[in-house]
Amino acid sequence: MTASAPGARFVPRTGEGWRDPFPMYRDLRDRDPVHHVEAGDHWVLSRFRHVFDAARDTERFSSAQGLTFLYDDVAAAGLDAVRPMVFLDPPDHTEFRRLVAKAFTPRQVAEIEPAVRAFAVERIEALRHDGGGDIVARLLKPLPTFVVAHYLGVPEADRARFDGWVHRVVAASATGDVMAASDTVAEIYEYFTALIEWRRADPGEDAISHLVGAGDAAGVDPLRILGFAFTMITGGNDTTTGLLGVGLELLGRQPDQQARLAADLALADDAVQELLRLTSPVQGLARTTTVDVDIDGTTIPAGRKVLLLYAAANRDPREFGDDADEVRLDRRAQRILTFGYGAHHCLGAAAARLMGRVVLEELLARCPRYAVDGDAGTFAPGNFVRWYDSLPFAPSG
Predict the structure, then answer these.
(1) CA dist 51 to 28, 366, 380, Å?
(2) What is the DSSP letter of 79?
(3) pTM of the complete model beyond 0.85
(4) Residues 97-127: tens digit of each pLDDT
């Protein structure tokens, strides 16, 4: 094991600390890409090649001990019993993912597009009518909550209650203390326990129905289904809000690229891919080494947490060129780490891309010279997801 290089230091960010973590990422990539944090005894990988390799190596880099750099984080969050899908390794993860994936087919994603578009148009038109406002509160936070509710099969009549639960749980999860919203968590578990039984008798095309009807007549263990629902709620909301809010701010800082996209909305898919790379809403997640691992001459001992800094890797000039920090609509980078890679590639990636594309198309069609004020925006608390909790928006710059 080698000592960390002078000048390179990983410091967890939260709230306003997220405004500019990129100099720290650059120092880590250049000076100490396999970085040891003595306080807490965990490691940080920041170069694309190292993060990419570790993300795909589920045998040596396990998810079973949690995804933060804190030890015993699964137990601390009260998730031992439900054991969400993200804390599984293959082959258990592979089998469970196969069952859930039936609700996330290209057809399923395409079918929700009209509803997503109608939701976005209504919210954008309201912002235009009002001359602007907080685009996070008005559009970017409610939209992913709407989509998650759809995939979980939450009936329309329960959506308002579901929205409140999501808001409280995401706020608690951001601080790393999900149990701070223990009453809400209990309500969610009670609700979805009843929803599971309802879907057993009256199945639909949602993910809960697919899990209830999977395998034998008893379906999947209800605790495992509850764990999946909880993962969707905590993982499918602030991440998409991060893509959209930070993405609009990045695009607005490069008016030539904003104008180019507004003039040719056929570039929206390319724009989403580039903004996914640059925003990396989940800045990093951890794995635990199952054996001693050597990376370029530095040994990470077995049983140690290793933070995979996706956001640093996604801006690594060794992979993406000297302009890796800039928006370039024609970059078309294929290997990005925003959704992880390999076995743990995010199941909701297609839905997130859909929301990103629809928002860009509808917003730029109606407000081609929009402006957002990142300096006046505020970042949400939490050590792992970087997203604007508020962001002032003006329909024209």
Answers:
(1) 13, 39, 25
(2) -
(3) yes
(4) 877 777 777 888 889 999 999 999 999 999 9
